[in-house]
């Protein structure tokens, strides 16, 4: 199951830089994760300072 980024996102970009498959991109007001590309590695969740990414 792919990760999703909640509205808690502060647009810092830490998750995008950490993603090994480039599944994360800047969206409208928060970063978004492409579910088809995400490999559920959890790297984004581990680096986010506000805990916005989570597995759903």
Helix/strand layout:
Layout: E1 3-5, H1 14-18, E2 24-26, E3 31-33, H2 43-47, E4 53-55
Antiparallel strand pairs: 1-4, 2-3
Total strands = 4
* Largest sheet composition: 2 strands, antiparallel
Structural class: alpha+beta
**Fraction of residues in H or I helices:** 10-25%
Oligomeric state of the chains in view? single chain
Spatial separation of the terminal alpha carbons:
6 Å
Arithmetic mean pLDDT:
97
Strand content: 15-25%
Q: Which parts are unreliable, with pLDDT below 50 for 5 consecutive residues or more?
A: none
Q: Would you list the SSEs in sequence order as H and E?
A: EHEEHE
Q: Give the spatial strand order of the biggest sheet.
A: 1-4
What Rg do the Cα atoms give?
Answer: 9 Å
Describe the protein.
With 56 residues, the protein is of the alpha+beta class. It is built from two helices and four strands; from the N terminus they run E-H-E-E-H-E. The chain has helices at 14-18, 43-47, and strands spanning 3-5, 24-26, 31-33, 53-55. A two-stranded antiparallel sheet has the order 1-4. The protein has a two-stranded antiparallel sheet with strand order 2-3. The protein is globular. The relative contact order is 0.40. The model has no long low-confidence stretch (mean pLDDT 97).
Feature tags:
single chain; 56 residues; alpha+beta; two-stranded antiparallel sheet; 4 strands; 21% strand; globular
């Amino acid at each position: 199951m792919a990760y999703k980024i909640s509205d808690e996102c502060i647009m810092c970009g830490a998750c995008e830089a950490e993603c090994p498959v480039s599944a994360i991109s800047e969206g409208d007001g928060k970063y978004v994760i492409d579910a088809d590309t995400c490999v559920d590695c959890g790297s984004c969740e581990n680096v986010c300072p506000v805990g916005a990414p989570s597995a759903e």
